[in-house]
C-alpha cells in the first residue's frame, strides 16, 4: 500500500515521490542503525552480569551439539527457549571464535532489524518522515542502544514482539488485507521461541485490549487460517523434542515455573535457575525508572502520549498496547526495565507518527515546549557524558574534550535554528548530534570503562596459564555468570566439586590442582577451613570490595604453587 499523496502534487508525481522517499528512508535508517550497533562490538570484554552466562550457554550448545535443551554447567537452563542461543551458535561458528563481538553480533543484527521494521511500519502507516523519526528515535534511546550492544536474549524478544504487535496494528489499520492477520498468528511461533509462554502472552494481552476498542475486528482475528497452524507448528517443533528429552520436568519449567512462578514469585513455583525476591520491586518501579531509560527523547515521548486528535488505530493503537503492557508488568512481582523494552520501539514509532502530524500542522504549545526541552537535554547529555567517564575511570581530558566538542557545536546549531522557529530542522540537528555522541562514546569511552571489568577475568586467565603448564583446573559452586566466563576461557565445562569434602579431596591430589571457587562460600568460611594447606592467589578483584563477590577465589595446592616459580 502506498501512503496517500502529499497535498499540492499531482497523483503520479506524488506516487513516485513517496516511493523514492520510502526507499531512501529505509536506506538511511538501516545505515545509521548499522553504524550505531556494529561499531564498538569488539573493543571491550564481556561485561558482568548477563553476557558471560549467555556466552557460556552458547559455548555448551555448540560444543555438545545439543540444540533443543540449553545447558549451563552441564545442567538444563530453560529460563529462555533456544532461539537466541542458536543465533549465537551460528554467529560464533561463522566467525570461528567465541570472542565478544561474535557473541554480540546476533543482538546487533536484531537491533538493526527492529529499527528497519519500525521505520517501514511508519512509512506504511503514515509517511516516510514518520517512519524515519520513529526508527531513529527507537534506535537511539538509552535502553535500546545499550541492550543492542550486549550478548543478551532481551533484544531478540524485542525484535520478535515488535514484529508481532506491528502485524496486529497493520491488520487493524488495513482490514482489507487478510494477510496481516495470518502473519500475526504465524509470528507467535518465533515469539515463543524467543521467550517461551511469556512472549505470546504479552502479545495476546495487548491485542485483546486493541480488540476491546475495535470490536469489529474480533471475528477477523479469530477466523481460522494457515497462520494459526504455522505458529503452532513452530512452537511444537521445539516443545515435542523437549518433552521427549526431559518429560514433565522440562515442560513444567517452561510452561509453569518460568511463567506463573516468576509472575507470582511463589516459593513452590520458583524456577530451578531462579531465586525468590531476585527482582522484586515496588509498584511504581516503572514510573520511576522509565524516564531515565528513554533519554534524551523522554520529553517528546511523553508529549506524544497526551491524547488529542486521535483518529483511528494509527493514532490510539500504540498507546493502548503500551498501557496494557505496563498494567501487566506492574502486576507482576518481578520487575525489570528490560521487561518493558520489547514495546518501547513501537512506542517510539508512535512518537514518530505524532511528530509527523505536529510538524505538518504546526506545533502547539505542548509540542514546542517538549521539542525545545529535548534540544537542551540532548546538548547537556552529549557535552556532559564524557566528563562523567573522566570522573569514573580517569579517561584523559583531551579525549573527553574531543567527545564534547561535536556535541557542543551541533547542539548550538540546533538551538540557534530553534530560536529562528525552525523546530523540525533543529530536531534533525539534535538527532545528528546524539548519533555522533553515541558513536564517539562507543569508540572512545567504552574502552576506558572496560577497565572496570578487566580484573574480573584475572582468575580465569591465571588458571588457564596453570592448565597449560600441566595443572588440573576444577570449579567449586560457581554461579551462572562465573560458569559462563569459565566456559569461554577454557572452551569446555570444567569439572566441579559440590561440597567441602570434595574440595579437600581435590586439593589433596598428588598432581597440581587449581580450584576456581565461588567467593561468597569461601569468605563465609564454609570451605575455607577445608582448604587448609591450599594457597589463595591474590588478584586485583579479590582485593577490591566492589568486585570481590563477583569473581572466583583461585586456590592452588602445593604442586600447583610450584608451577608459579
UniProtKB/TrEMBL annotation:
Cellular component, GO annotation: plasma membrane
Domain Glycosyltransferase RgtA/B/C/D-like positions: 80-241
UniProt main location, coarse: membrane
Subcellular location: Cell membrane
Keywords assigned: Cell membrane, Glycosyltransferase, Membrane, Transferase, Transmembrane, Transmembrane helix
InterPro entries: LipidA_mod_glycosyltrf_83, RgtA/B/C-like
One record GO biological process: response to iron(III) ion
Name of one Pfam family that matches: PMT_2
GO MF terms, alphabetically ordered: pentosyltransferase activity
Mode of membrane association: Multi-pass membrane protein
Statement: the UniProt record of this protein carries the keyword Transmembrane: yes
Organism: Mesoterricola silvestris
The protein's name in its UniProt record: Glycosyltransferase RgtA/B/C/D-like domain-containing protein
Amino acid at each position: 500500500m502506498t501512503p496517500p499523496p502529499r497535498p499540492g502534487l499531482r497523483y503520479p508525481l506524488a506516487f513516485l515521490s513517496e516511493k523514492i522517499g520510502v526507499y531512501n528512508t529505509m536506506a538511511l535508517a538501516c545505515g545509521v542503525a548499522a553504524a550505531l550497533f556494529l561499531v564498538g562490538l569488539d573493543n571491550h570484554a564481556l561485561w558482568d552480569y548477563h553476557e558471560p552466562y549467555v556466552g557460556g550457554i552458547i559455548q555448551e550448545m555448540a560444543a555438545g551439539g545439543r540444540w533443543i535443551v540449553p545447558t549451563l554447567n552441564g545442567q538444563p537452563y530453560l529460563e529462555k527457549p533456544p532461539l537466541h542461543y542458536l543465533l549465537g551458535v551460528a554467529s560464533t561458528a561463522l566467525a570461528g571464535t567465541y570472542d565478544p563481538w561474535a557473541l554480540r553480533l546476533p543482538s546487533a543484527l536484531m537491533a538493526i532489524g527492529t529499527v528497519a521494521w519500525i521505520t517501514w511500519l511508519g512509512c506504511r502507516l503514515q509517511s516516510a518522515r514518520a517512519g524515519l523519526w520513529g526508527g531513529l528515535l527507537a534506535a537511539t534511546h538509552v535502553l535500546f542502544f545499550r541492550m543492542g550492544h550486549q550478548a543478551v536474549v532481551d533484544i531478540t524478544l524485542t525484535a520478535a514482539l515488535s514484529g508481532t504487535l506491528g502485524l496486529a496494528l497493520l491488520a487493524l489499520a488495513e482490514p482489507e488485507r487478510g494477510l496481516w492477520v495470518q502473519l500475526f498468528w504465524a509470528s507467535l511461533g518465533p515469539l515463543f521461541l524467543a521467550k517461551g509462554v511469556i512472549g505470546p502472552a504479552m502479545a495476546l494481552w495487548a491485542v485483546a485490549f486493541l480488540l476491546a476498542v475495535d470490536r469489529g475486528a474480533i471475528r477477523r482475528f479469530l477466523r481460522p487460517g494457515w497462520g494459526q497452524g504455522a505458529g503452532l507448528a513452530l512452537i511444537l517443533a521445539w516443545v515435542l523434542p523437549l518433552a521427549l528429552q526431559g518429560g514433565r520436568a522440562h515442560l513444567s519449567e517452561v510452561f509453569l515455573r518460568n511463567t506463573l512462578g516468576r509472575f507470582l514469585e511463589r516459593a513452590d513455583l520458583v524456577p530451578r535457575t531462579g531465586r525468590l525476591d531476585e527482582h522484586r520491586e515496588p509498584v511504581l518501579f516503572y514510573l520511576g525508572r522509565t524516564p531515565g531509560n528513554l533519554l534524551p527523547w523522554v520529553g517528546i515521548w511523553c508529549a506524544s502520549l497526551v491524547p488529542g486528535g486521535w483518529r483511528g488505530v494509527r493514532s490510539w493503537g500504540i498507546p493502548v498496547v503500551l498501557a496494557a503492557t505496563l498494567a501487566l508488568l506492574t502486576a507482576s512481582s518481578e520487575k525489570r526495565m528490560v521487561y518493558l523494552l520489547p514495546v518501547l520501539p513501537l512506542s517510539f514509532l508512535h512518537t514518530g507518527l505524532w511528530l509527523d502530524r505536529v510538524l505538518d500542522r504546526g506545533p502547539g504549545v505542548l509540542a514546542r515546549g517538549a521539542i525545545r526541552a529535548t534540544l537542551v537535554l540532548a546538548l547537556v547529555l552529549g557535552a556532559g557524558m564524557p566528563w562523567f567517564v573522566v570522573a569514573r575511570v580517569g579517561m584523559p581530558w583531551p579525549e573527553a574534550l574531543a567527545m564534547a566538542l561535536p556535541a557542543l557545536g551541533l547542539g548550538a546549531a540546533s538551538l540557534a535554528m530553534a530560536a529562528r522557529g525552525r523546530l523540525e530542522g533543529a530536531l534533525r540537528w539534535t538527532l545528528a548530534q546524539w548519533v555522533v555522541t553515541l558513536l564517539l562514546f562507543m569508540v572512545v569511552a567504552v574502552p576506558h570503562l572496560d577497565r572496570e571489568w578487566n580484573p574480573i577475568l584475572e582468575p580465569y586467565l591465571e588458571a588457564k596459564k596453570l592448565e597449560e603448564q600441566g595443572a588440573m583446573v576444577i570449579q567449586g559452586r560457581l554461579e551462572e555468570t562465573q560458569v559462563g566466563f569459565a566456559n569461554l576461557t577454557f572452551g569446555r565445562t570444567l569439572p566441579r566439586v559440590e561440597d567441602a569434602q570434595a574440595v579437600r579431596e581435590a586439593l589433596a591430589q598428588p598432581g597440581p590442582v587449581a580450584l576456581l571457587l565461588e567467593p561468597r562460600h569461601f569468605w563465609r568460611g564454609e570451605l575455607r577451613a577445608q582448604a587448609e594447606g591450599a594457597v589463595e592467589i591474590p588478584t586485583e578483584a579479590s582485593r577490591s570490595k566492589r568486585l570481590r563477590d563477583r569473581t572466583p577465589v583461585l586456590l592452588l595446592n602445593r604442586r600447583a604453587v610450584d608451577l608459579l616459580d
